[in-house]
Amino acid sequence: MHEMRSHALGALYGLAIGDALGMPVQSLSRAEIVAHYGPLIGEFCPGPDGHPLAAGLPAGSVTDDTEQAMLLARLVVAGGGEVDAVDLAHGLLAWEESMRARGSLDLLGPSTRQALAALAAGADVTEAGRAGLTNGAAMRITPVGIATASRHRGLLEDRVVAASRLTHNTGVALAVSAGIDGDPLPVAISRAVAGAAGAAGRGHWAAGADVAARISWATGLAQGLGQDQLIETVYRLVGTSLATQESVPAAFAVAAACPGDPWLACRIAASLGGDSDTIAAMTGAICGACHGAGAFPDAARRTVARVNGLDLDPLADDLLAIRTSGHD
């Protein structure tokens, strides 16, 4: 149980650390990142003046990725593993209002906003998110993976779909769950591909590349590449936009290319350009789940906890209590 707890904390800390590394460079191009921070981000940096989302944020600050994951985690705990979509909708709207009150422009993404507007207009919860193609659900799904054992794949898929009807992506959650169960990173990735493929039919069809196939292709593409070539390949070929079909495979590609160094993986993901905070958050969650919290520098863990007021130990315990109860 001690090792499982370390892996659960690794997923939560990895999510926050990757997010905070990518915070100051979110939405920037690769060229802009290189010009201001060099080819590889080395540490937490403050939000730069003039940045449309991150200006004025202290170094180590997280963004919507971690904040929405924490919101979802609290709902998972309150529901004993289950998440009511209407409760999630209300929680996200309240979160956005709190962000506006803080003067932040880092608000709900396009798919989530569209789905919540549909719900407010009277759409059924199963239909509201049918047009969602961006990565909002994937970025916040880590707590569901912590709370559900990977051997209960049907249950995990059910919980993911309930918690993320916008994109129906199970890959990140299954990789996190497999890592907590003790699977090494390559095995966790292969199980994530299988899970994403198996659950593809549970969402609404939309024209676009298959996420499972792209994860498999991207991770193979990244194998054996040096750091600069890896970043260039993911940025130019895999893609780093908000689209689930780009950002999720990009996170898996970086994770696969750095199987023994989660801290480096997060720094590379944050340096990609595009939706770099979300990609780094997903990369950190996957790598942290497979390696445990100790794979990240103590100073990095302390910084994200202090700057953002995160108390992750009791949250990890609560999620694991759900994981280990009632489904064996």
Task: Give a structural overview.
Helices cover 63% and strands 0% of the residues. It is built from 18 helices and no strands. The model is unreliable at 128-134 (pLDDT under 50). The chain is mainly alpha-helical and 328 residues long.
Low-confidence stretches: 128-134
Secondary structure tally: strands: 0
Percent of residues in helices comes to 55-70%
Number of helices: 18
Q: Provide the gyration radius in Å.
A: 18 Å
Structural class, judged by helices and strands?
Answer: mainly alpha
Q: Kindly report how far apart the N and C termini lie.
A: 16 Å
Largest sheet: none
Percent of residues in β-strands:
under 5%
Q: What string, H for helix and E for strand, traces the elements in order?
A: HHHHHHHHHHHHHHHHHH
| Bulk shape | globular
Task: Round the mean pLDDT to the nearest integer and report it.
Answer: 85
Helix-strand layout with pairing:
Blueprint (H helix, E strand, L loop, with lengths): L1 H21 L7 H8 L26 H15 L6 H17 L8 H11 L4 H4 L7 H5 L1 H6 L5 H11 L7 H10 L4 H14 L12 H12 L4 H12 L5 H14 L4 H9 L5 H16 L6 H11 L3 H12 L5
